Amino acid sequence: MKKTSTRLADGRELIYYDSRDDVVRDAVDERPLPQVTTASEIRHDRLLGDSVAVASHRQGRTYHPPADECPLCPSREGRLSEIPAADYDVAVFENRFPSLAGSTGRCEVVCFASDHHASFADLTEEQVALVLEAWTDRTAELSALPDVEQVFCFENRGAEIGVTLGHPHGQIYAYPFVTPRTERMLASATEHAERTGGRNLFDDVVADELADGSRVVLEGEHWVAFVPYAAHWPYEVHLYPRRRVPDLLALDEDARTEFPQLYLEVLRRFDRIFGAGEPPTPYIAAWHQAPVRAPHRDGFALHLELFTIRRTPGKLKFLAGSESGMNVFINDVPPEAAAQRLREVAST
Fold first, then answer.
1. Active site amino acids
2. For the chain, where are the alpha helices, taking DSSP H only?
3. Pick from 273, 191, 290: nearest CA to 227
């Protein structure tokens, strides 16, 4: 992998990740961009104990542009984009409309491929391996920033999820605090260790799923994918490395090598859940990593959670009263049935 860091016209960082070492990245951003101005702030909710990012400047961000005006495509004559080069493998840049900025964190965009009409599931294993390297490198760089407490790599796919750009891309949020979901996992892990004489909660969850087997979707030598026992979403898969590690940086070479094959298979099954002729399945793919400075962070287990809000063809799972008002999820699809369907649509 070759990494090249440069700057866009307004001073934001742009990083190219290339599979070949002989690629030269010297294209200059020729757009007359004004300096980025943000109004991001973090407000603490005293009742719930969590934090909310208020970012009013995001109201003016790019919204569903036509394909020939996509800001994530390579630049060409007469159409300059966020990527000055005429082609690229993987590109990462600071978001022009960040939810978090300055002392309140950092937001980056990860472009998985230069092909506007591709999706992550269309990538080759070599391309996915390069994306994994980019995720890992950004985790290392962002974790080193003094105000960052947690790094979150994720992908939103599909208009139903709220995606405003159709180009295959994801994002990375570097939070200045530990997220509420991670704090709950850490608290549950601590309670489990105290109750069981020091056992690791994540290890026990994976072991229990493997022993039961009814919710296991896919197994590799170094990774396992399953629908969790208490899945919140109609179709939800958790992907764990068999050797527990706290973050992407700690993955060994065997796990890195196997990941692209297994993850691509899971994504392609997601697109086949609802049958032939149905549109691509909208989803969120979220990497959960240990907070940067959490005590006993080695007890946390890196894993990826993939889920869709589509519950059946043409119908979505909405977060209504119970979910939005009380954070109590009601799942219409039994996890065992979801796992069975995901096994049925395996690649032949």
1. 169
2. 125-143, 180-196, 201-212, 253-270, 326, 335-344
3. 273
User: In angstroms, rounded to a whole number, what is the distance separating the alpha carbons of residues 150 and 198?
Assistant: 25
Tokens of 347: 């690649």
CA distance 4 to 23: 9
| Intra-chain end-to-end CA distance of the chain, in Å | 32
From residue 308, alpha-carbon distances to 61, 134, 191, 322 in Å are 25, 25, 30, 19
Residues 102, 38 contacting (CB under 8 angstroms): yes
Bridge-partner residues for 271, per DSSP? none
Strand boundaries in the chain, DSSP class E: 2-7, 13-18, 40-44, 51-55, 90-94, 106-111, 150-157, 169-175, 216-219, 223-226, 235-241, 283-288, 303-308, 310-312, 315-316
- Give SS3 for 237: strand
Contacts of 174 (CB under 8 A, 6+ apart): 100, 105, 106, 107, 108, 142, 143, 145, 148, 150, 151, 152
Any residues with CB less than 8 A from the CB of 56 and at least 6 apart, and which? 39
Residue 28 has pLDDT above 60, yes or no: yes
Report pLDDT digits (tens) over 123-163: 999 999 999 999 999 999 999 999 999 999 999 999 999 89
CA distance 64 to 11: 25
Helix axes 180-196, 201-212, angle to 10 degrees: 80
Whole-angstrom distance, CA of residue 220 vs CA of residue 312:
28
The per-residue pLDDT for range 313-335, each reduced to its tens digit, is 999 999 999 999 999 999 999 99
